């Protein structure tokens, strides 16, 4: 029997379509898991090719002579430019603004073949680079909102294979984020608590949609998950802004992220995916009603005309079944699979 | 120089990314345009296989003995079911409802190889079937909103090749539609006119983003178009609901839609696309502040982590360039190309 579920945070409805239901196993990619070469001569992100990229913004050195663990560089095909004034133009119904902004690439490893889930704890250096850039750019008053994200695989929009993530700092706050803040504020005003904190406690109590819970983070399938295996990782401690994460939490998040990505890699055979950090804009960093999280979206299905035309999603995998499937995947098998 | 543009209706920002800019020609699919077989024995939508589909809901007869132009049937893999009560369940932060609803398939032609843009005026029968079903289902008080849509090609989510569209009638109004209504109402309350009517007049005056204008319809690229070649077709007459379209307008819309789809077919070589009718829910059919339209989205690019993480889109084709490109495509060449 199909069911409609409403996302409490966005108020959006999702159809959980049991007539079209798929067991989680049916979405396995059936790809052969093989590591690409560790070094590709033509790859601009491989060591030795540092001069092929735009200027370096920062690097995490590796300790060894002149080498690095993580490099942050300007995006060669930047969507926004630091050299434009964010001046607004209003002409009748048309509103525009100069395309001011920052667009970084975070090269996650010198190893072209590196798979996030196969790393030991080195992903912590990537998260530290995210935070360093986030903190630095949050001080720029022209910047309204920062999005940190990763595209893995061509279905997820990745054009280069070498593991990397991106950061875009924009001079506006999107309407979608404005609306989510409005919903979160309404909840706070009515109940006097952060709705994300409340939901995490409910999910810990119920357990059915949990994937992992550690000292500092909880990874779960949402009750009204819009797409199969889409997951959120929430910090247990109330924080509106990713910029407030502390060093111990960064270490824990690196482990949780590696485990979750490892479960996807092994359980679904290296699906294409995106992840992004959903954080409060800098000017709202201290608010009691919003809670940052990391959203992971495996790209296993296509958005079609119904979703585009109605704003509603059809999810063919029961979130509780997806959570159970992922709880049972052992990412330690990743090393062998890779 | 990149530019940020804000959609006046949704308030959403779009990055028009000129550093990554593509000339419209660069998005041509380079597919070979070839018609599939006119009849496929195993296709459930081909004539003679009518018993392979769920019960017929309605048909437009062709005049000839026992044959049909258009058939409407229940979807074999329906997302929602007419046999479930739309009862709401509220438990802490979780809201759900029985998956009540109607899910039709509209088989657009008995000809498996039929291409919308190659038809003469027969698409009018498809639009009449849309309206007949829309009108009938609008009378059902359990139904809150009806979405009519088409998926063409695998990248657009189509699983069957035989030309067809779909209709889903749901017992809820999506939050996205609620928000668009709220924006439209705010504009009306401030200016005393429908913001869509106002924008269509502005665009007719300026001309740069127009693709076609006929007696009853205007097809244009939006100023803040989120994806390349995405188009809207607006009726000139103010109507909130698709159900208010009259027979003369249906004939004109069939011609406009055929021309637009023909321009895409010829100009971009049969790109995968979705279209959907964005209409007021039945209970708002008479409102002065909302205006229905048909939205066409060619699936030429992938949504990636930035879009998923921020709600903002990056469009690599200037809407004015896309409109000019499409104005210059002659869909009459479709017959030869097909």
Structure description:
With 338 residues, chain A is of the alpha+beta class. Chain A has one domain (7-17, 37-337): HIT family, subunit A, CATH 3.30.428.10. Helices cover 25% and strands 24% of the residues of chain A. Chain A has seven helices and 15 strands. Chain A has helices at residues 123-138, 175-191, 195-206, 247-267, 305-310, 319-328, 334-337, and strands spanning 3-6, 13-16, 56-61, 68-74, 88-91, 94-98, 102-107, 145-152, 164-170, 210-213, 217-221, 231-235, 273-278, 293-298, 313-315. In chain A, the strands form three sheets. A ten-stranded antiparallel beta sheet of chain A has the order 3-4-7-9-8-13-14-12-11-10, with helices on both faces. A three-stranded mixed beta sheet of chain A has the order 1-2-15. Chain A has a two-stranded antiparallel ribbon with strand order 5-6. The longest helix of chain A is centred in the C-terminal third of the chain and has 21 residues, at 247-267. Chain A is globular. The first copy, chain A, starts with a strand and ends with a helix. The mean pLDDT of chain A is 92.
Chart the SSEs and their pairings.
Two copies of one chain form a homodimer.
Chain A lengths: L2 E4 L6 E4 L39 E6 L6 E7 L13 E4 L2 E5 L3 E6 L15 H16 L6 E8 L11 E7 L4 H17 L3 H12 L3 E4 L3 E5 L9 E5 L11 H21 L5 E6 L14 E6 L6 H6 L2 E3 L3 H10 L5 H4 L1
Parallel strand pairs in A: 2-15
Antiparallel strand pairs in A: 1-2, 3-4, 4-7, 5-6, 7-9, 8-9, 8-13, 10-11, 11-12, 12-14, 13-14
Helix pairs in contact in A: 1-4
């Amino acid at each position: 029997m199909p069911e409609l579920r409403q996302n409490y945070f966005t108020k959006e409805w999702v159809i959980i379509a049991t007539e079209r239901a798929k067991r989680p196993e049916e979405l396995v990619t059936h790809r052969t898991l093989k590591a690409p070469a560790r070094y590709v001569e033509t790859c601009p992100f491989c060591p030795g090719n540092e001069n092929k990229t735009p200027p370096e913004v920062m690097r995490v050195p590796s300790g060894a002579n002149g080498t690095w663990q993580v490099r942050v560089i300007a995006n060669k095909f930047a969507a926004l430019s630091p050299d434009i004034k964010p001046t607004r133009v209003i002409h009748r119904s048309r509103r525009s603004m100069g395309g001011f902004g920052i667009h970084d690439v975070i090269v996650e490893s010198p190893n072209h073949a590196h798979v996030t889930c196969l790393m030991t704890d080195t992903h912590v250096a990537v998260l530290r680079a995210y935070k360093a850039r986030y903190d630095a750019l949050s001080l720029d008053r022209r910047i309204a909102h920062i999005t940190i994200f990763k595209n893995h695989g061509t279905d997820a929009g990745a054009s280069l294979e070498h593991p990397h993530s991106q950061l875009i700092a924009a001079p506006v706050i999107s309407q979608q984020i404005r609306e989510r803040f409005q919903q979160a504020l309404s909840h706070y005003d009515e109940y006097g608590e952060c709705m994300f904190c409340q939901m995490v406690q409910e999910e810990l109590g119920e357990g059915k949609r949990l994937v992992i819970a550690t000292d500092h983070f909880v990874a779960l399938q949402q009750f009204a998950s819009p797409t199969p295996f889409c997951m959120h990782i929430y910090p247990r401690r109330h924080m509106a802004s990713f910029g407030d994460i502390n060093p111990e939490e960064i270490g824990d998040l690196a482990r949780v992220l590696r485990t979750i990505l490892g479960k996807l890699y092994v359980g679904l055979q290296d699906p294409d995916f995106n992840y992004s950090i959903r954080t409060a804009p800098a000017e709202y960093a201290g608010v009691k009603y919003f809670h940052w999280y990391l959203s992971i979206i495996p790209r296993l299905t296509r958005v079609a005309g119904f979703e585009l035309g109605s704003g509603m999603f059809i999810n063919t995998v029961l979130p509780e079944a997806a959570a159970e499937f992922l709880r049972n995947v052992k990412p330690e098998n990743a090393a062998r699979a890779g």
